[in-house]
Amino acid sequence: MHIDPLERRWFYVIGVMIAAMLVAIFYTGLAQGIHPPSNVESVDSARLHMTEEFSEDNLGVHAGEDGALTVVMVAARYGFYPLNIELPSNTPVTFRMATPDVIHGVHAPGTNFNVTIIPGYVSQITTEFSEPGEYPLLCNEYCGLGHDHMWSRVTVVPPDQWQGP
Ligand code: CUA
Asked: pTM score, two decimals?
């Protein structure tokens, strides 16, 4: 069977492109821990402040009986509440987030913490911050005129300096 040399060359180009994409998928998925959130859990957005979990005085860091850390957070036009979260480094933390209004995104640049928060659902991801420091949390879904100003902060300290939830 005759295959035109030019066509044969394109086979290789396409093969290299497919290989590069597979490497990118496996590298980000396995080495950098980037993958779609798998938690599906609904919540009544209109009554968020009336729920036990997302009421104002329950927001922030909680430690379970086994010591596992959970951060309960509300994303609302235009801020993430609570505004400042302090966490220990190198410790798995589960974030549970919901919104009472529109779609928001929350993203800590330089980490794998990046998730969309959709009305009617609880967004849950588990991550850890390896380096102590200040991490801004930015909104990365356009949510209205104040979108640019929607941000808060995670302060990460070494575990022995962490003051607890
Ligand atoms: Cu919230 Cu953009």
From this structure: 0.81
